Amino acid sequence: MPAYNEEKTVAAVVKRITEEVACDFELIIVNDGSSDQTPKIIEALAASDPRIRTFHQKNGGKASALKQGFAMTRGSVVIIQDADLEYDPAEIGHVIQPILDGKADVVYGSRFLVRRASRVLYYYHYIANRLITIFFNLFLIFTMMAVGWGC
After folding, report:
1. Burial (0-12, 13-18, 19+ Cβ within 10 Å), 114
2. What is the structure's pLDDT at 119?
3. Is residue 114 scored above 70 in pLDDT?
4. 90 or 69: which carries more pLDDT confidence?
């Protein structure tokens, strides 16, 4: 779990993971140079649960924090859970089930491809995301043409 200035959400995410993940797990929280109370909070969480390990590094970005977490893991299945509750920890079991069943070697999650009836995808969010993507693609094309970077 990469964490950067997540003092408001990291404890809630960890609580949800420890309560909702049914299988054995280790939780590696990589503090990516937070300047708030995140380091103190994650150290307290690790002290209270032996399944939680922490690592502190200078701010190197999410990719750097993920790389460090991958290097530290001892498990055979690895999942990325952000510290800001962007993804619901209750989904972890559903995401890894194809691996546990031997039906997949890797599973990629997407909030746009959820097929379970209990999860509602807001149609307007999808349309807005599509329109924004189209707008920025057109903007990029016209910008490249204006400065002569096109074909």
Report:
1. middle
2. 45
3. no
4. 69
Answering whether pTM is above 0.70, one says yes
Q: What are phi and psi for residue 56, nearest 5 degrees? A: -120, 130
Rounded Cα gap, residues 39 and 45, in angstroms: 10
In sequence order, the 6+-apart residues with CB closer than 8 A to the CB of 53 are 26, 27, 28, 29, 46, 72
DSSP 3-state assignment of 27?
Answer: strand
Q: CA triplet 36, 39, 42: central angle to 5 degrees?
A: 125
Beta bridge partners of 32: 57
Instruction: Please give, one letter per residue, the 3-state secondary structure of 43-90.
Output: HHHHHHCCCEEEEEECCCCHHHHHHHHHHHCCCCCCCCCCCCCCCCHH
Give dist(CA 35, CA 139) in Å, integer: 35
Number of Cβ within 10 Å of residue 22's Cβ equals 8
